[in-house]
Specification:
Layout (H helix, E strand, L loop, with lengths): L4 H12 L4 E7 L5 H9 L29 E3 L6 E3 L2 H7 L1 E3 L1 H10 L17 H13 L6 E4 L1 E3 L13 E3 L7 E8 L3 E9 L2
Antiparallel strand pairs: 1-9, 2-3, 4-5, 5-8, 6-7, 8-9
Length: 195
């Protein structure tokens, strides 16, 4: 399966435009893809194909903190500090492609679940097709990484009722995301919420 610009942008907008999500893709320029992830978070690189993303919080960026909201206080009342490649590596773990497809759908729901997909008019299978279209942009030889975990599962996320947790990458109370890494691109899909 491959994705063209129209089908990819249509799937992204349909899934994420009504929520509070960040979607962006940047070029893969470094052997260590974590550096490329940080460049996308800082909006320092354009989408290599010129495809549209979603960035409802771009207005919150400052010269001092270009990656907002992807920055963390060391402690609750401390000033914000930028994430480092080590931070990214510590907070993300690899998941399989099927988990990434489900995570793309779970990111549309507060709490990162698959419980409230009925707000979409499409069936679950049709929504999964959109998630596959989103991933298809990056090809078959990808790795998928997330800050989300489900109890008792490594490499596979279980959205079937087990508690879901996350390692914070932002200053929001809830931030769940997916990083897709190919040989030429890195894609970020992130949802935020205050809980």
């Amino acid at each position: 399966m491959s994705a063209d610009q129209k089908s990819w942008e249509s799937a992204v907008v349909h899934l994420y435009d009504d929520g509070f999500a960040f979607v962006a893709t940047g070029p893969r320029k470094h052997e260590d893809w974590r550096a490329d992830v940080l460049a996308v978070m800082e909006r320092a690189v354009p989408d290599p194909r010129g495809w549209a993303g979603i960035d409802p919080i771009a207005h919150e960026r400052t010269a001092e903190h270009p990656a907002v909201p992807f920055c963390r206080p060391a402690f609750r009342d401390d000033p914000l500090r930028p994430l480092t490649p080590a931070d990214v590596g510590e907070r993300l773990h690899e998941i399989d492609r099927a988990s990434a497809e489900n995570l793309l759908l779970a990111l549309t729901d507060d709490g990162c679940t698959l419980r409230n997909l009925e707000r979409f008019s499409e069936s679950f299978e049709e929504l999964q097709g959109m998630a596959r279209t989103v991933l298809a942009r990056y090809g078959d030889a990808i790795t998928c990484h997330t800050n989300v975990s489900s109890v008792g599962h490594i490499g596979t996320l279980d959205f079937g009722g087990n508690p879901v947790g996350w390692m914070p990458m932002t200053f929001y109370g809830e931030d769940c995301g997916l990083v897709v890494v190919s040989e030429t691109e890195v894609g970020l899909f992130w949802a935020f919420g205050d809980i």
